[in-house]
Structures are given as structure tokens and as C-alpha cells.
Design a protein that fits this description.
Layout: H1 2-11, H2 14-54, H3 56-81, H4 85-107, H5 109-118, H6 124-148
Helix pairs in contact: 2-3
Length: 149
Amino acid sequence: MVIQLLTRLFTGEASIYFARLRTVATIYLIMAVVALAMLFFLLLALFIWIAQSAGALATALGFAAVCLVILIGVYIALLVARRPPRQRAADRMQRDVASIASVAAVSNIPLLFRSVRRHKSLLLVPVAAVSAFGIFRFVMGLRDNDRRI
């Protein structure tokens, strides 16, 4: 778009280009207004249809609850978008590292299966780890229950 504008400036056709842009922007604005009206009438029709079977008060409360959930979702998205760029970059890096680690793990699965086929005793390692974790959780649960009493 910038290259087109520069080209039009050099050739002297910038006014024609801006007129077209203004026309396109006006058409998009009209389309947006009509789309909002359509959305309003669709929601109104949905409200009336649900109100006929569930009652007006229940339908109004339901629509209010849905609007509240959407509002909370938009607020959370706003909080995520307003985070400092460094924090967003750190999050992106963590996702990239996790993605690379998962790709590396998945690519090594055939090697792991071959190793387990050769050495059946390797199956004892994950079984022992899960058992140790289960015993740890059991002991911590007992300890937490003793503190509550």
C-alpha cells in the first residue's frame, strides 16, 4: 500500500488514489453499520425465540450472564495485551522452547521404543518414578490431614 502511494505520488495520480481510498473506506463503513444492525436483529430474534419458551426474565438473565462472561474474557485479553513487551517476549520464548522440546521428544520416541524392546528392565524406571510420586503424594496428604486436626 505504501509503495502504491509513493508510485502514485511520483506519477501525479495521488488524488485519484486518495479518492478511491475514501470511496472504499465509505463502503466499508456502510457495510460495518449494516453488519452491526444485522447482528443486533439476530440477537433480538434469538432473545424473542428463547423468551417464548423460557420466559422473558430468564432469557434476560441468561443474556446478561453471557454478556458478563464475554466481558470478563475481553478484560483478560486486554490484560494479556497490555503486558510489557519483555514479558510477552519471555512468554513467546517459553512457548518456543516447549515446542522445540516436544518436537525433540516426539522425534526420539522410536529410539526409546527400540531401547525398551532391547532392554525390558528399562520399563522399571518409569514404574518406579510413578510409584515414588504416588507414595510422596500419599505421605504429603497424611501430613496435611494431621495438620488440620
